[in-house]
Amino acid sequence: MKKVRDYNDSVHFYGRLSMVFILIVFIGVPLSMCIFYNAWPKPSAVIKGLIPIAMLYYPTAVVEVLTYAPLLGTGGMYISFITGDISNLKLPCAIAAMNAAKVKPSSEEGEIISTISIAASSIATIVIVAICVFFLRPIIPIITDETSVFAPAFAHVLPALFGAIGAAYLLKYPKTVIAPLAVILLILAFSGQMQVGLLIPIGVIVAVVAAHFMYKAKLIK
Amino acid sequence: MTDFKEATFMYVIGLVVAVVVLAQAVFFLVKAWRRGKELGISVQDMKNTVVSIVMFSVTPALSIVATVVALAGALGLVLPWVRTLIIGNISFETAAASSAMSSYGLGSLSSEVTDPEIFSAIAWVMTLGSMLPLILIPIFLKTIQKKMGKTLAKDTKWADVIASAAFVGLISAFVGRAILGQGNIKTSPDVLTDGAGVLSVTALISSVVFMLILQKIADKRQIKWLDAFAMPISMFAGMGMVILAAQILPPEIAFFEWRG
Q: Which among A25, A156, A215 is the nearest to B194, CB-wise?
């Protein structure tokens, strides 16, 4: 039992350390640009540009941290909040990997598989993006251009990705799917513009509450 | 003089950030791998996980490349690339850059930024706008997880139900958007609209069908590797069907989106 706590504590320790270090590097990017180019933007202009962004994204950040904390696991949180693309890449990867390895998300095996998958996805993404951006630059527009044959597929990566994951979960938890999907569809019927950033916390809360009551009523086990 | 946005200095910055971020991911990968061995997870399972995840990440990574290319016209190649390394995503970067430019009275991202001062103002807004999680997580995550851990430890069966339900909730959000969501042209200026329509439902249904078939085969024949690769294969199959539908169906049917 002691070993379990040790691993988790040490993930928190290195996670915190690395995150603070990366935060410093992160702030160093615009700072070093200002120093190197001797171009200091007026603080008032930066603040004026920041306010509408902060009003939208700071509350989102708080909601995201709370929503993803139970889903990504400890190691996964520290990695995926650095590299981003959580809902559309890191979390699906973790879900897919835990499903394929047949481990439970709340177990320590789940934590390990989820960390491995998120780390692997981060590394793969960084390498692929770097190769494409720097070596395949002339080819990229041909693939991603609006007129290319691949363009429609790129516009619908997410339905394809979540279709595959959803199918696995639909098989395993058919009853759990009903409530969140019904609520999401109802919301979208009235407000089709609502973004996934808002739909995710709604879906998660509805699913969790519904599952809790179904479990208590012994409808699911 | 070479363009300041793509000067050697900018590449050096990018390289430093890339190395730091990679190092963190590699560190945790190795750490989890060792712990996984201690726990008795088979090395083959972990290897399968890595290979299947790499496959899984290819297309989303290409979408990220597309966003870098889309922003490169205005901001050069390096800054958008650096931004995708740390918490970047297209809707945020576009919004942040536009907001910073508008505070200088400039219109949109369609024109190239030529003033280093505006360029660094954009970099500041992007950085300050997205760094909040890097402050929140080191401070609060341990406490949040301890509280959650205590609640979940009381009834592990209940914990499994709740954890799976949370995943289902997330999946529902994306599935729902594919069925009834309105397209959002603003967040993806370089691609076609991504609203619910014939193509999104084609992607959804065909990847569901492929997944069900592959899972069935894997279970029946006890093919372990297929378990690991069923999801990425189904995703590619779904995208393949979208390409096929866009090619075969008349455009007014294929590109029809019911929410406009």
A: A156
Say if the Cβ atoms of A91 and B32 lie within 8 Å: no
Q: State which residues of chain B have pLDDT below 50.
A: 1, 186-191
Q: Give B43 to chain A, closest Cα distance, Å.
A: 11
Q: Kindly report the nearest CA distance between residue A28 and chain B, in angstroms.
A: 9
* pLDDT tens, position by position, A150-192: 888 888 888 998 999 899 888 888 999 999 999 999 999 999 8
Distance of alpha carbon A65 from alpha carbon A53, whole angstroms: 18
Q: What is the pLDDT of residue B184?
A: 62
Q: Nearest residue on chain B to A50, judged by CA atoms?
A: B125
**Residue ranges per structural domain of chain A:** 173-221
**A59, pLDDT greater than 80:** yes
Q: How many residues are given for chain B?
A: 260
Which chain A residue is nearest to residue B152, measuring alpha carbons?
Answer: A106
Chain A residue nearest residue B18, CA to CA: A126
Per-residue confidence (pLDDT) for residue A206, from 0 to 100: 96
Q: Are B184 and A195 in contact (CB under 8 A)?
A: yes
> Which of residues 133 through 192 in chain B touch A, CB cutoff 8 A?
133-138, 140-142, 144-145, 148, 152, 156-182, 184, 188, 190-192
Measure CA B50 to chain center. Answer: 17
Yes or no, beta carbons of B204 and A101 under 8 Å apart:
no
Quick one: three-class SS letters along chain A? CHHHHHHHHHHHHHHHHHHHHHHHHHHHHHHHHHHHHCCCCCHHHHHHHHHHHHHHHHHHHHHHHHHHHHHHHHHHHHHHHHHCCHHHHHHHHHHHHHHHCCCCCCCHHHHHHHHHHHHHHHHHHHHHHHHHHHHCCCCHHHHHCCCCCCHHHHHCHHHHHHHHHHHHHHHHCHHHHHHHHHHHHHHHHHCCCCCHHHHHHHHHHHHHHHHHHHHHCCCCC
Judged by CB atoms closer than 8 Å, whether chains meet at B171 and A165 is answered as: yes
Angstroms from B240 CA to nearest CA on chain A: 7
ipTM of the complex: 0.84
Q: Which residues of A touch B152 (CB under 8 A)?
A: 106
Residue written as token pair 């770097």:
A130
A115 touches chain B (CB under 8 A): yes
B105: alpha, beta or left? (left if phi > 0; alpha if psi -120 to 50): left
Beta bridge partners of B257: B197
